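Bug: token stream looks shifted between consecutive jobs. Job 1:
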Amino acid sequence: MSSAGGAVFRSAGRLIFVRSGIRRSADDSRCLRVYGDEVPLVRRIRRLLRDPGRADLCLATVLLVAAELQIWLGQAAGSHRAVAAVAAPVLAGTVAIRRGYPLLAGVTAQATVALVFAFWSDTQIFGTSIAWFCALYAMTVWTPFAHFVAGAAFVVVSNIAAAAGSSGTLQRSTPFAIVTLIVMIIVRRVISNRERRAELAERERDLVAREAVVEERARIARELHDAIAHNVSMMVVQAGAERRVIDETNGSTREVLETIEHIGRGALTEMRRLVGMLRSDTADPLEPQPGLGDLPTLVARVSDAGLPVELHLEGERRQLPVGIELSAYRIVQEALTNALKHAGDATANVHVRYGRDSLELEISDGGGKARESVVSGGHGLAGMRERVALYGGVLQAEPRPSGGFMVRVLLPIR
């Protein structure tokens, strides 16, 4: 069984020397493209190092090879080369097992170093010293508190005992033992605080994302209600008008029209009741919902705000379903808002392509210095994804190789 009982801190799943940053949405920051990813060897190495256990095994191998080379080719081991050569694999092995057995790795590494120092003094081998540090780090950070206390006590006692065994004095050994203990306590406290902040930030980000999705769904529901209610109302009005002027002798037609009118009125009532539950306390302004025909006005408004925008239309302009027109307009609006907020002193391009059975949108910017005081009323990529998923479309958002950001959207038209 593992002596860890499960990692106490989530950093046990990451490399020691790599600080894992909290990821942000694509509309909050632009990612840097690493050209080394295109090299197959580099890609294989990175895939190998993504597994923490394999990374530790590779590190242990490197430390063992470096230690043995220094022992047999250098003078650091002095007359104790055989002892150092035996201790090096043991210490390297503690690095390989430290994630699964951090307490065992730390105690074994400390005991080995103390034993060597007590009988043969310090050998000054860099590979074994680094392995000792790595094993103690694992015992300090990745063990429960009780195991940490036991391990720290063993480190202090073994350091003092090793110094006494090598004809040392308490004046020499006690300061080193105390400093080692203080460093272990500080490292554990710092890592604990960092992990706690990272976890809180991740929870907060997930909560904000869920709230954004809920708000965007409510907004989409309200907008679809307004669009569908208009069309259904026209159907009901026309059915009622036709029923009143139709000949009394044509009973079957009157019954059909009455049924259409009755079902339409019921649908409107139920829709208003359900969507009314989603409406916020502050009612939205009563105005026609925008569509692709309003893009020139949107482009002009964004250009006046400081981001020059060019609008390009391709294909035959035709009337699309109201929901798709509204979603396409909102996607372009949100993408331009993000560009205005993040691209700064740059230009943007909006391409709208009318296909036979699809609508394609492409919004790109050239990048630049971001502005600091631009407020967005939307929800960025979260809202875009909701709108695209509503119609079974495809969304692609990524940094451009030449700088800036690009959003591509494909909306099927059935």
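Job 2, same session, no restart:
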Amino acid sequence: MTTTSTAVTPELSAAAPRLGRRCLVVHDDLELRLRLAGVVRRAASTLDADSVSSSGLENLSLEQLGSYLCAMLIVEFMQRNGGADPLAAVARLHARAPRLPIFVFARHGNERSAARAIKAGAIDYWPIHSVDLGEFAAALQPLLVPVVNTSGKAKSWAQASLETSGYPEVAGYRLLKKIAHSSAATIYLARNDDLAQPVALKVQSIQGLASVSEEDRQRFARECEILSSLNHRSIADVIDFGITPDYLYLALEYFPCGSMRERLKNPLSEGDAIHYTRQIASALQVVHAAGIVHRDLKPSNLMLTTDNRVVLIDFGSARAQLVGLDLSRSDLMTGTPYYVCPEQINGKDPDQRGDLYSMGVLFYEMLAGRLPFLGNTLAEIFEGHRNGVVPVLPGSCARYQPLINRLMAKSPDERYPSASHFLAALEALTGRG
């Protein structure tokens, strides 16, 4: 039996699937299914919801599954059934219908649960009692655009979700959700049928850019090959990369726990600030040794793992050498103006000491709970980077002030010459090493 969001309980038809604006809600508790169906209607008023028990889901045919735009599984992470994997149903459904978008709504889950849900085949995850309605609506929106083919017939949910999303077409990848966006590139959650888990796919448009030469393209490929050879726990694995006439793309491992940008919305302890900064410096040490400068170090390019590690992603070097970063056009929400070094503002190509400056801004922000240079305009923010005095840390963190001052020196020559030198100074101060 199924129940809709209006509490009607029609039988699931065994006839030909009705392609409509419907989703499937799965859980054994009818009341909980109805509550989630109500949330669906609030997030997308044109989307209706059928519901089914866990056993009912197993009995649905592929034809019946194909009538739904997506499936929403409520997962109990508190073990009550003899230790069975709570995500087994997600994995089975994904194996049966790999192109059906699956959303997991968790009870008693945590960050590790989110990571496991994504690996099992879900495209998104929410704690069921704290669903952000705006985010949920945005996640559903690409699935709701009606599409017909040239014969006037509706396409399947798999075709519609892929072709009507407005996302670029990257051969071999299905783009599922937009994760982040800046003036330079967009990062999507994506799947490749040859890969066991989803990836973060960074896509940058180069369509119509005559300045991108064949030599530039070869340089991008060489640097991606170098990045893919790096093996460090604080550097994201590069899984794939490519160049088309219209796009550059870079596939990186996906981190469902979010970025440092979200983490900084809440105060950090001194211990966490040191822990994260040490990892960032270690990652830069490896990247710089490979001859690569990041050039865009900021919180949204630092991902968090389930064991509280920070991982460096979105290497700006290859991008910056193909398409120059025009800071005058930067969106303040991307974070770049707040972390950029003075020489980059002045139009010079920064070396590894530019990354150390950006790390200094991050280090200050983590310790002080605020950015060192703010302003109502880009010009005001840039003036702080060029000529502003580095602000003083709170008294409880005052012993780190000399490190911050040197990292954020206006002249690269006055900064630490390398990440290794900074790490040595940090360890000497904290008694490690």
